[in-house]
Structures are given as structure tokens and as C-alpha cells.
């Protein structure tokens, strides 16, 4: 049975760009294939009409294989919706999408990314954990559609991280002594 994509052991390169109206059928397909309580087209359009809401798609061979919707806040980006089409998972697309978000952070302005993950969505929890996100809070009865709890997960950029310091602890005094 052919899935029409490269084998899962290979990494797929995608182009990540702004979402446009023409992408909506493929975005909706990925959304419905990914979530039991999926957004409708009206949900997407209502969100994207907001001034601080951004939609981006991951494209491979002129096909939308993933998307993300996020809000811009003063000190953070908040991801509202993030999905990779099921047949395109585990080939590096989600990681490239997260890297795109991380690239929008700055030590002077927006320093973190937040998102809520359903308590039952273990795959998403593990994925975001693998991307250096940490669960910071439990949001009780967060989802109106099911009353399910969510984990608030966040990613923070490190302000004083040395390239050769893997655990994030830096001796800042030593930096001055070397100069």
C-alpha cells in the first residue's frame, strides 16, 4: 500500500509560508483527520480575521502537509492550533514548524511560546516535550467541547546559554575572566 510519500525513516523538507484562502480545503482535511473535536472553516476564518492571529502552512511538493495558527502577544506567541496530516507525521515536518516559531522569538520582546494540549493527546505532549516544551500548568475543564483538562506547555528562549553548555547552566563570571 503506497501512501504517496517518502519512507518514514527519511526526513522531508517543507516550505513554511503564510496561509492563504486557497489552502483551506487541505487545512480542513488535516484538521479533521487529526482531531476528534476539529475546527470548522468558520472557526479558522473567525480566528484569522483577528489582527494578532497568524496562520502558516507547511508545504511539500505543492501540497499542504501541516499548518499552525498562533496569536501574537506582547511577550509571547500562543499556538491555538497545530497539526501535521497523519500520513506525513514522524518525518520531521512538525519539528520544522516549531523551528519556524522559535525563529520568531527574540530576547528583547517575545521570549516564549505557549500552547494547550489535551490531557488525552499523549502523542502531542510527547512531541512538544521532544521540542523542549515543558508542561507548566494543568488547565481544568479547558475544552468546552468535552470538559477535558489541558496541559499548558511552554518553550522559553535561553538568554545566557553557551553553545558548549548543554544543561543550560552558565558561569557568567568565567565569561568575563576570559576576555
Keywords for this entry:
179 residues, alpha+beta, Aminopeptidase, seven-stranded mixed β-sheet, 5 helices, globular, disordered C terminus
What is the strand and helix layout of this fold?
Layout: E1 15-18, H1 24-34, H2 41-48, E2 53-60, E3 63-72, E4 76-84, H3 93-102, E5 112-118, H4 122-130, E6 134-139, E7 150-156, H5 172-178
Parallel strand pairs: 4-5
Antiparallel strand pairs: 1-2, 2-3, 3-4, 5-7, 6-7
Structural class: alpha+beta
Level of helix content?
25-40%
CATH architecture: 3-Layer(aba) Sandwich
> What's the helix-strand series?
EHHEEEHEHEEH
User: What would CATH call the class?
Assistant: Alpha Beta
Q: Determine the N-to-C terminus distance.
A: 61 Å
Largest sheet: 7 strands, mixed
Count of β-strands: 7
CATH-assigned homologous superfamily: Gcn5-related N-acetyltransferase (GNAT)
Give the spatial strand order of the biggest sheet: 1-2-3-4-5-7-6
Descriptive notes:
It contains 5 helices and 7 strands, in the order E-H-H-E-E-E-H-E-H-E-E-H. It has a 7-stranded mixed sheet. Strand 2 and strand 3 form a beta hairpin. It has a single domain, classed as 3-Layer(aba) Sandwich (Aminopeptidase), CATH 3.40.630. The protein starts with 14 loop residues before the first strand and ends with a helix. The C terminus is likely disordered. With 179 residues, the protein is an alpha+beta fold.
